[in-house]
Amino acid sequence: MEKLRLETGGHLASNDDLMHLEKKTTSLVEVIFKSMLRNPQISYKLYGCEVTEDSVAGTLQVTEGAIFHQREFYQVQAQNIPLQPGGAYGFKITDNPSSPGVKVIYASGAEVIPHQDRVMVLAYADFDLVGTTLEQFNFKHLTPDHLWSGTKLSFERPDGSSGPLVDLQGPKGDKGDRPGHRWSGSQLQIQNTDDSWGDFVDLKGPKGNKGDKGDKGDDNGIEFLRVISSPSTSYKFPPQLALLEVQFPDGKVGYIPTSYQTG
After folding, report:
1. Which H helix or E strand runs over 24?
2. Which tops the pLDDT comparison, 50 or 260?
3. What value does the mean pLDDT of the chain take?
4. How do strand 72-76 and strand 118-124 relate by DSSP bridges?
């Protein structure tokens, strides 16, 4: 683990020192990024690096950004180069033109050249990375490919092969206890796990709309003969009741009582 120490005999603090510390922090981020990236062999635009043609000005332009290429990070500065219509363009790796290249001697005697980063510049023909093949980085690139089979899950290994299927569904648990409950008409109340009671919930919904008229029923071969409004019987017959005389499929005659409205 590297530590920052203040010692007698050192040099005055400068921006280079801050840049050196920044680079150490960036290196740690790079390690994390490379270890999590699904396919570190692919080049990505981390941000910016948008290339456009300006036919009026006759230039090919790129915005400021950063590129991950061959497991390394490169800064891209905003730049304009003369336009070559139809020409292939890309990004060329070069030394950082803004790097001072001045060695800093620390109290320990070590000589360090801070922020001597290599960068990428826009170029025609002579380039290290084809500009049109760059894929925009997304956090999905940190997620390995996976395959589901029912409740089983398999992840893709770094070498591209598939790992074993792992069943994420555990064994069936024991049957839980039935919660306490009580009714009030059509309302139901459930007891909570802390023995308190929840709110009553009315399980009876609003009255529905009247349904459509059904199809005409089958008479099952029964033939209507006549209505007997004052049947001759040995028992008292209600005046609002009548008999329907019908004939059944086997030829027998029978009577079905029914009510009727007078007047």
Report:
1. helix 15-36
2. 50
3. 76
4. parallel
The shares of helix, strand and coil residues in the chain, as percent rounded to the nearest 5, are 10, 35, 55
Q: How many CB atoms lie within 10 A of CB 22?
A: 12
- CB contact at 8 A, 179 and 196: no
65 token code pair: 């950004």
Q: Which amino acid is at 192?
A: N
**Residue 242: count of CB within 10 angstroms of its CB:** 19
What would the DSSP string read from start to end of 239-263? TTEEEEEEE-TTS-EEEEEEE----
Asked if 246 contacts 257 with a C-beta cutoff of 8 angstroms, the reply is: no
Residue 127 DSSP code: -
Question: Taking the model in full, what pTM does it have?
Answer: 0.40
Q: Which of 104, 28, 89, 40 is nearest to 68 (CA)?
A: 40
Render pLDDT for 197-211 as a digit per residue (tens, 0 to 9): 999 999 998 888 888
104 burial type by CB count under 10 A (0-12 exposed, 13-18 middle, 19+ buried): middle
**Structure-token match 């020192």, residue found:** 17
* Residue 100, beta-bridge partner list: none
74, β-bridge pairs: 67
